[in-house]
Amino acid sequence: MIKDTLNTKEAELINIIGAECAASQRDFSRHLNISLGATHMLLRRLVEQGYIHIRQVTKRKIEYTLTPKGLSERLEKSRHCTLETIRSIKRYKQTIRDIVRGFYRSGERDFWACGDEEVSWLVQSVFKEEEFQGCRFRILSDEEREDLEDGVLFICRPQAEPPGWLAGKRVNVFETLAREIHL
What we know:
This protein has two domains: 8-66, Winged helix-like DNA-binding domain superfamily/Winged helix DNA-binding domain (Arc Repressor Mutant, subunit A), CATH 1.10.10.10; 85-182. 54% of the residues lie in helices and 16% in strands. Helix 1 (8-19) packs across helix 4 (68-105) and helix 4 (68-105) packs across helix 7 (173-182). It has helices at residues 8-19, 25-32, 36-48, 68-105, 117-127, 142-147, 173-182, and strands at residues 52-56, 62-66, 110-115, 136-140, 152-156, 170-172. The radius of gyration is 24 Å and the shape is elongated. It is built from seven helices and six strands. It has 183 residues and is an alpha/beta fold.
């Protein structure tokens, strides 16, 4: 009896084949970090289950392609990953929103961010909500950060504590979100 659910390596192999139709078993083996023999077994199992098709192009060249079932599986995994990413971003935004709300209620109106552009953008997106009217928010370069003494600083890079900023008025976004993940 053939099982119909894919293990992690089988799902990875389907993604690799979907992205690189002309790759060899040796390439697959390297990408998956498994032996050539294990790769061969995975390929055979995926053929038997109807996820991939193998075609002999020349005496020395084999082409691996996804079947409609394989393509459907790949698209479903992509959809699942995309939805999980969106859920994570919503949770992260809520965590940041809760932090900003606490500072806002205590009278803070100046907020700054420095570090990774994508993470700073996530913080900035919270300030575009009507709840935080009258706030000033700006993404700063490292040089600009040196000149500021007041306000709340969101540090948007791992392990970066700026000197001279009041400890209670800085938030390391990476550490905060990492704690959120482990809760």
